[in-house]
Amino acid sequence: MNKLKLFSGSSNIPLSKKIANYLGTELAQGKVMTFPDGEILVKVDEDVRGCDVFVIQSTCHPVNVYLVELLIYIDCLRRASAARITAVLPYFGYARQDRKDEGRVPITAKLVANLISTAGADRVLTVDLHAAQIQGFFDIPVDHLMAEPVISSYLQRVHLAEDMVLVSPDVGNVKRARRYAERFNVELAIIDKRRLSGSDTVIEHIIGNVEGKNVLMVDDLIATAGTVCNAAFLCKEKGAKSIRIAATHPILCGPAIERLVEAPIENIILTDTIPLSQKAQEELDNVTVLTMAELLGEAIRRIHRNESVSSLFLTG
Ligand code: R5P
Asked: Are residues 12 and 60 in the same domain?
């Protein structure tokens, strides 16, 4: 394949630099400028003609700005005659609107998939999509990595609590929680959650036993933290000994930080698909951030060399 070039959007430069470091390269030179009215201009400062280009951008807060920046980056690279463009989205925003769950609503995950393809991406590389079937919203290849190998090997390294139980904070996370439970050979409990609004959820039941156990709760993301905090309070009420949360994408918006500070959670394991805000870094003293740079870097290396990436899903 032609020369590999790695560009970074503005959303997560620390992760992009770590990926470049893993690949033994530097980030390619590009500039993002904003006009006084908010329009974005991207200018690539090096020749990409015939290159195998990867552009890294998490579509996290401010989601609309970073999404448009990614689209403009891709358009710019296409018009500069890159041979192949891979959009690397460590966090794929808008994924939660992935179906019509009531009348007269959009399917925004599909719209964003269309926009990325139309802009000119040839492939997508991403991590822990909110729903795996979003891969099918694209008509271009999607490599979908999971943070699970990274989180599991961290847990195995630090120490796996005895009497552990895996807790899924809602029905949507059962598959993920079951995979961890099978990996660690422990039992699974499931929480029955009902969403009242974008920031509020109620939970009433827990299926399974957490009494006297060390809980590991897994989720793909923490947004307002209502889900994991309510679940943590319920587990405590049901007699859990300790509670640890592992979530891939730290969106941490709205009341998330205050909720996480109040909740009976000993350790919050997150990844760096989204950078932590200054406030989160200052106020959350029980957070461990694991990097996805090696897994993403290795996937980029293999895509570039036309090698299989599927073995990356199983390691750890
Ligand atoms: C739900 O389907 C997701 O897996 C998360 O549990 C949810 O989106 C988290 O949102 P919040 O932190 O606002 O409760």
From this structure: yes
